[in-house]
Amino acid sequence: MADVARLAGVSSQTVSRVANGHTSVVESTRRQVLNAMQQLGYRPNSAARALKRGEFRTIGVILFTLATTGNSRTVEAIAAQAAHEGYAITLIPVAMPTQDGVLGAFTRLGELAVDGVIVIMEVHLLDAANLVLPPGVQVVVVDSDAGDRYPVVDTDQADGARQAVRHLLELGHDTVHHVTGPAESFSSERRALAWRTVLEDAGRVVPPVQRGDWTALSGYEAGLRLAGDPTCTAIFCANDQMALGVLRALHERGRRVPADVSVAGFDDIPDAASYLPPLTTVHQDFAEVGRQCVQGLLDQIRHHTREPGTVLVPTTLVERASTAPPGNRR
Amino acid sequence: MADVARLAGVSSQTVSRVANGHTSVVESTRRQVLNAMQQLGYRPNSAARALKRGEFRTIGVILFTLATTGNSRTVEAIAAQAAHEGYAITLIPVAMPTQDGVLGAFTRLGELAVDGVIVIMEVHLLDAANLVLPPGVQVVVVDSDAGDRYPVVDTDQADGARQAVRHLLELGHDTVHHVTGPAESFSSERRALAWRTVLEDAGRVVPPVQRGDWTALSGYEAGLRLAGDPTCTAIFCANDQMALGVLRALHERGRRVPADVSVAGFDDIPDAASYLPPLTTVHQDFAEVGRQCVQGLLDQIRHHTREPGTVLVPTTLVERASTAPPGNRR
DNA sequence: CACCCTCATGTTTACGCAAACATCACACCA
DNA sequence: TGGTGTGATGTTTGCGTAAACATGAGGGTG
Question: Which CDD domains does the entry link to (chains A, B) (predicted)?
């Protein structure tokens, strides 16, 4: 900066003013400074800037994995929105969903240059690790039921599941089987609860849930179990990938979809439209989730508030070819 | 820090020494300082640290999207390895693969607190934008042919494609059709070139390529075109998602896989094992790519060198149920 | 024509930390 | 017993920036 100032024949403060777009710099001076900057390849040092300003203009995102579609799409949306607001994103992956893992990440986060954190995971893992968030670091949580203690942004899991199950019942199925995700997952539990509630409210039999772990393979295994049950005519899967596995299992066992069995998923990943048959599924608006997260976090940062509460992002059912009335021979 | 020093009854320098694990602090003093830190909730300010040390311990990752499996898995691996080395990851998404987009990201990067950058995209987009990388910011590139100018880490695209095509020829197919990715993609072009070369070397007819854009939908469209050609008995798709689309198209047109047509993919995404039928595909070792990227970048940062060259990460063919000899009626 | 006000620009300072150097106490040896 | 060395701790300084305050030139007004 001093070099630029010297070359432009001004003081370093004037260089600073130009760099920050201050108004009270005469056009000719501004141009000289910009010239000098260009010539010397000057770039402001963000460490010094952050030190002086007391903020990093950076948001940390803490998560277990990018491997699930939901996470990676949420992160992408967060990154896009953050960039839009002039914030950078720092990724903090936690190796395993263990207490130690989470704690480790947050210890690092404490030293990390972030103004706030978005947590994409179950909040009970934070609690279990007895985490005290570094003071001054604001938090927004995704995929959690901690709306009473933290600001939470989430897809409206319950409503999405309700839509899918009701859709199947309305097609005329007696009941709907469910392939659920891991028990630790809040989204998974919420979807299962909504599924059960709809069935109970409609006075239907509630079949035992088939437990999966979000992967297509676990869906396949669940599907094999269900394929053996001739009364099973409708299956609601907690995500699209498990639905893919279910489709494969049904196919291998000679049960046609949707003629013999209807299958619905959750997420609406791009591939779902190309499954065999194209999958009826619940569409999640990840972009909106990302937007709300960043907006909520920046509000907190700017106003130094922390208001617990949950923002729910609506879902929509996308009807494709994997659901039909029972006994439909097409 | 001054507060901690006061409370512990030592100088701030001693606090600094404790915080950085220096040796020459007597145990009793160290404990006092740690106590004071705990009590006051002290955590080092990373901006000041970075300013003093002249490094950020942060790596920037610049990319177009996390939506493709390859990218998100590479990023995940990079993040894991970086964390292992005590580095944080800053994500810089570029909205569109246009010159402006890339330039914008790098301008921001210049101000960003990073010691180095990993670029997950075509290097010609950097060139097209006439980018001068900020001095002092080291670069490693993924998915590019710029090995003569930048250090490049990449999956061995050519060998992977060769394995897939040879596998199909060895099964007895006269030739192999190809569904390729976008022309701007280096991986895509490299896979296509290897496909063509294997066919030519074997003296086979080289059918026209079917152009896709990595999505399952584009694969579906390509598949519809190929399904109409009765001489087409083997299809090599440049990624698994397009293969998914091809499978759907073949299915809809009544062409059985692998009895009538064999299909192979590339990537080995987890879902591929659950396709109908389970997909024969080329396995990419994304974790290794991430490891090599970080390692290479840190080497550069630490030794202030920049050695162009390409590190190729080997691939393996995973044979599943989507390929078989031609005319195989199972 | 003197005064004051405004606006462009310069000077000083502090942000929090850690390297470099300075100091001091104590132990050991001749 | 004085000298010397060693290791623990304190003091000074500067990293690059921007806020706060200082300066000074020019223009307008009575």
Answer: HTH_LacI, PBP1_LacI
